Amino acid sequence: MNRKTGEIVVPTEPVSRATKITGFTFKSYDKSAGVLQFQIKNQDGSPTDLIDATVRLFMYIYQGEEKKEFPIFDNQIITESYMQGIVKYPIPDMLLSYEGKVDANVYIDFPDGSHTDNLAFTFNIEKSIIDGDVQLNGEYYFKEFQQLLDGVKQEATDAVNAALTNVDSTIEKANQQINEFVEGATQAIDQTVDEVTEQLQATQTKIDTVSQNVTSAQNNLKAVEDKMNQTNQQIGDLGKLKKIYSNSIDFGGYDYSGNPNLMNNLSFSDFAVQAGGGAISDGGNFLKINKTSGTNLFVMAGYKNSAYYLTPVLPNTTYTITYVLRKSSNFVSQSGKRIFLRYRLNQNDVTNNLGELILDSTNVTAEFTTYTKTFTTGALINPNSYYFQVLVEEGLSGEIELSYEIKLERGSTATPYQPNLLDDPYWVGKAPLGENIADPTKKFPIKSSGAEIYTGTMTEPFVVGETYTVTLKGTKPADKNFRLFNPGIAGYGNLSPVEGVTDVWSLTVTVDKVAADPRIVGINQTPADNPGACQIDWLKIEKGDTRTQNISEYKYFGEGLKDSNNPNDYSWDIKPEYTEKGLNDSVSLTEPETILGLKNFAEGLQSSGVNVAVEYAKAIDTDKYTKHGAIYLGGCAWLAWETLTFQKTEGYAKGSYIRLGADGNASFTYSDVPNIFGGYLWLGGVCQPDYTDGGFGSYHITVENNFDDARKPIVRVIDSPSTPVKKLAVRGFALVFAPAPTENSQVKE
Question: What's the rounded Cα separation, in Å, for the pair 307 and 309?
Answer without folding.
Answer: 6
